[in-house]
Amino acid sequence: MSSLRLSKQQRDHLGLLQRPAADVVELCKSAFDYLINGPNLGRYETLAKKYSDSGSAEAVQQTVEALISLLISVTTRVGNGSVNMQAILRQTFPDLGDDVLEVLEQFVTSKRNFVEGSIKSANIRAYRLVNLDWRLEVRTASRSLLEQCHVVVTMKLYLHTEPKNENRELLAVDISGRSEAELKAMQEDERLHRKDLLVQTDVSSLVHMIKTLEDALAESKTRRIRNIVDAIH
Amino acid sequence: MATSPGKSPALDADPEPSGLLSATVVAGLRNLGAIISPPLTKLLIANSLKLTLHPDATIAPVPEIYASNAACAKQSEYAVVTLYALATKHGWDGLYLRQQLEQLALDTGAVDELSRVYEDNRKELVLRQLQLGHGFPHITDIQWRIVCDVKSSTSDCSTGVAHFHINLGNFRPSSGERVTIVEFVCNAEELQSLINRLKEIERHCNQMAVA
Amino acid sequence: MDEVDKIIMHQLHQVDATIEPTEELDGFTPEQVVRAVSGCLAEIRPDLQLPRTLPGGAMAQRFGVASSLAQGCKDSGYRGDIGYQTFLYPNAVELRRLLMFLIEQLPRERQTTDDGTSGKAQSLSHRQLLQRQIRKELTQQLKTPWVPQFARSVGNRKSLGCSSLGIEFRPNINLSIPSANPEERTKEQQQYFDQQAPNLFQQTASSSVDLIASVLHKNELDRWGQVLPDSVLLFVGSEEPEAPFIVTSTTKSPASAEEEVSPLQELSNQVQELRIQCENLLTERKSHAATLAALKLRETKATEEIGRIQPMLKLNERTSLVLADSEENLTKLESLLKTTQSKSQTLTQQWQDYRKPLLETLETLKTAKGAQEVQGIRNSIEELEQELQAKTQQHNELNATLQSASQSLAPRKEFTRRIFEFIGNIRKQRGAIYKVLDDTRQLQKQLNVVGAQLQRQFNYTDDLLFQSAKHDLHAKRAYKLLAQLHSNCSELVECVSLTGNVTKQTRELEVQIDGEKLKNVLTNLQKITGDIQKFEQHIQELQGQIRALEHPNAGS
Known about the structure:
The complex is a heterotrimer.
Chain A: H1 8-13, H2 21-37, H3 41-50, H4 57-77, H5 85-92, H6 98-110, H7 112-120, E1 128-139, E2 150-160, H8 165-171, H9 180-193, E3 194-201, H10 203-220, H11 223-232
Chain B: H1 10-13, H2 23-31, H3 38-53, H4 70-89, H5 94-103, H6 108-120, H7 122-130, E1 138-139, E2 141-147, E3 163-171, E4 178-186, H8 188-210
Antiparallel strand pairs in B: 2-3, 3-4
Helix pairs in contact in B: 2-4, 3-4, 3-6, 4-7, 5-6
Chain C: H1 2-15, H2 30-44, H3 59-75, H4 84-88, H5 92-105, H6 108-113, H7 126-143, H8 152-155, H9 187-196, H10 200-203, H11 211-225, H12 229-239, H13 244-251, H14 261-324, H15 326-409, H16 412-469, H17 473-518, H18 521-555
Helix pairs in contact in C: 1-5, 2-3, 2-5, 16-17
InterPro entries (chain A): COMM, Commd2
Protein name (chain A): COMM domain-containing protein
Organism (chain A): Drosophila rhopaloa
């Protein structure tokens, strides 16, 4: 099991990890906060004041960002729980104490699921089906045929590129305390990641669609497919 | 008007249904059997109908129609197509069409031929005009594939779950080429909920059909 | 049983009002049977063409009708024994079974929607028709197997639709078709239409436009174009800048589309120039038209002025003529005045003379008319009173019938109660039957046990006696007696079982006899012999006719 390859700059930024375990815990908490709320300069300022001997607010921020980078690279490398996380961390940071390493391991494992979901399906932003509205319609007349009875099922598909459910929850933050610019940015984001589509079909095709999709679902549950998926995993 | 079989509700509103035809159409119809000879009339009607019903098919051209009096032939072609389109639009039956044509004082042979061809092909004409009109993209075909990632640019390991790529589309009527309307990805639970949603529609349709 | 009959009668009456609900099922004539069964079959399967009545005369026709109805019942799924005899020689039991089956099969919808007598000939509203159509369409789509899109135009032809091919309504707005009057066309236009102009189908061959849409659009434009010239011009004008090139190529020189680009460019340049010229000319024409209109306005004003002045001129001329010779003219005018006055006096006198009698007659007529009106009102009051009485009487009658009807309709609850009673009774009987069966089984078991015991006893005794018979003469005799006893006993047992069998047979025969009695064979037999005699008579007649036909041939 080899160590993680970190650049010189990254190692410099992680210099603050040399501090006692309690301070590292504080830094890790800041990194969590960063993940959810973004940078929080005031907090870094107070932290920097605490570590008056070494570093400014800027150094603290760099450390926090380096921690997140560490989190991502560890998650990328370590697929599931079978790999010994502590061994990797120990090889990567041979000069750190056991208590600090334990804190780091905890930090990495606790947020791994969150990061995993994002990065694993982040590369191809395919649309996912979020919701479906439908309506049964009958066309009774048209310009070319005044008397007819054409039954059609109209469906509205709500598609979204946001990869994972847990991250979608983040999108649903309350908009009450946000500035106008922020709201605008969010709307823009919505517009980019969302697509609503109106389609129609006839009942016969609908029945066929249901059958085909059920076939697909049944197929995915067969032993053969499971074996293949397990083998890849 | 009271004696005519009032099939279409539009007839009640329009006191003189032959007024539906423009002067050009009437002139074109009068050419049939008169300026254009009866055998050519037959050929012209058959050809017009074929081209109306199968706009995309390659049908052998009939040059003899335009051999003499091409302008009249072109006018009559337009007239025949328009007559059938209007008759189908207003839901005339064969008898009613004949009555209308007789009011226009056309050649009797042409009237016979026109109403006979109309009666023989009414269903196809209705079907043809039923397709015409605005609609959202119509799904008639569905394709799926099960996908499982092995490795990606952002992760060294597989997610370990199979995903479904669902592709909804139809076929372009003219070329038969497949057109994708929408494509999306979902996992097993999402697919199950989609199936449930669609089944809900089917169930509703069933209820409508039985009630 | 007559409860069932009542239900059957009620249903039959709903199906066919001519069947009176009072009649007994036993007393049904073949005619009534045919009427009832064919009525039910017509309800169940409206597509079937069945005879409604039994023809009176020829046996062969009657036979044909009866067997076709029997076939219809079989086709509807009736399992029981059925044939022409069921209709021609009806029997209450079979008929009851058949009618109950048919009533069971009657469509439910009819029973629920049908409110009494006004069943079939109600006209449906448009909305109901549409709903029915939608329902039909939906069931059809749900039931029919899925057909791939490209096969739909053929596969779904019968169902008239569901082809699901959407063609946008996109007309070619610039169809060029020779107009109605050939006289209006210039020579160049005629030549163009004769030689170069693409036909209708070539003009709509592009995938972006549709033939039917184009044709409908043009027809409507032709019909309303004259009424709304401005809007049409506006429409065409707004369309042009978007695709000027297409317009020129389709309307003016479609043949050049196949040629190279440079002549096309040239031609389009020319067209452009011509268009500019045309616009210039149009503006010129417009200014001319404006001046023309102004001039016309002036002209009308002038004519008006002239009209006003001319009568004044005439008056002036007359007065000047009169003033020329005043004395003479004055006397003339006075005499004229006098004669006119006398004339007017005589005329007023005459007028008075005529007027008086007329006024009098008017007065008398007015009074007469008033009296007549009063009389009329009185008459109408009387009529209305009579009508009211008739209506109240009718109301009473209807009330009475309603009461009787509700009384006759009420017993449904009664029926169910009785059915429950029957079921209870049947249950009780079933219990009794089980009890008897148990007893019988018990008895059988005992019998078997005793029989086996006896057999063993006998074998043992037989052995014992046989052993001793070798030595003892008495024992030998005893052994013989034992053998005799054994054979006699077995004979006896056999006799008993035979007696039992015979009694069972007897009972079965009795039941059969009862059944046959129920079928009143005698009368049916009489009827059948009567029919056979009729047949024979018919045959004889026919033979006689044949002979008569042959005879003259032989004679000649």
